[in-house]
Write a structure and sequence with these properties.
By secondary structure, the chain is mostly helical. About 65% of the residues lie in helices and about 0% in strands. It contains eight helices and no strands. Helix 1 packs parallel to helix 8 and helix 3 runs antiparallel to helix 4. The longest helix has 26 residues.
Length: about 200
């Protein structure tokens, strides 16, 4: 993830960020709802449930996190994902009855918000890997219903690099790596709790 970055980038900081979030990341990936979308036997109902959960994550981020970062991440509007999830759920005739707030707006400042966005943007990289499985599932094998996991398409790598450049530039200017790391760990833990506690009970 740290390859092909600008020469001025703080690779040590990114390594620390990755290392200090690896446990929380693996814990999230270990949940059955996370594992379900990587299964060759994935059911459409499980896929819809996962998309519904991720809608909550992205909606909360766009409402709480994005406003704090509008002056610090130049291409922030291009990173909104709720419209992609809505498109997929509509194609699959899935009705999402309510939206759950995943993140709290209490005590979130700019570096903490950047840590949250690090987790969310990182999921786009993983999404490209997940897409390979999803596109083999009947009903999703005609390049429809997969807008969210397609994400930035073949520009995913460049979007990730651009974000990391902006993230590390802010950290270098403000000496706030601990707050960014805390935000990233918070994001992984909060998404984990959301996945764990939200039952698949929608129509």
């Amino acid at each position: 993830m740290t390859n092909n970055l600008d020469s001025t980038i703080n690779v040590d900081f990114l390594d620390k960020l990755k290392n200090q979030t690896v446990t929380a990341h693996k814990k999230l990936e270990s949940l059955p709802v996370s594992a379900s979308i990587l299964s060759p036997q994935m059911k459409i109902a499980d896929y819809c449930h996962y998309l519904s959960l991720m809608y909550d994550v992205h909606y909360s981020a766009q409402e709480i996190v994005f406003p704090l970062l509008k002056d610090h991440i130049a291409d922030l509007a291009e990173r909104e994902k709720t419209q992609l999830i809505n498109k997929d759920l509509s194609f699959l005739h899935y009705t999402k009855n309510n939206t759950v707030w995943v993140f709290s707006n209490k005590a979130i400042n700019v570096p903490f918000a950047l840590g949250i966005l690090y987790v969310i943007e990182g999921s786009s990289l993983g999404g490209r890997f997940i897409l390979k499985n999803i596109e083999t599932i009947p009903g999703l094998d005609q390049q429809q219903g997969v807008s969210y996991f397609t994400g930035y398409g073949n520009k995913t790598g460049s979007y990730w690099k651009t974000f990391l450049n902006q993230l590390t530039a802010y950290e270098q200017q403000n000496n706030c790596q601990d707050e960014i790391i805390n935000g990233a760990v918070y994001a992984f833990d909060t998404i984990y709790n959301h996945f764990l506690n939200t039952a698949n009970n929608e129509d």
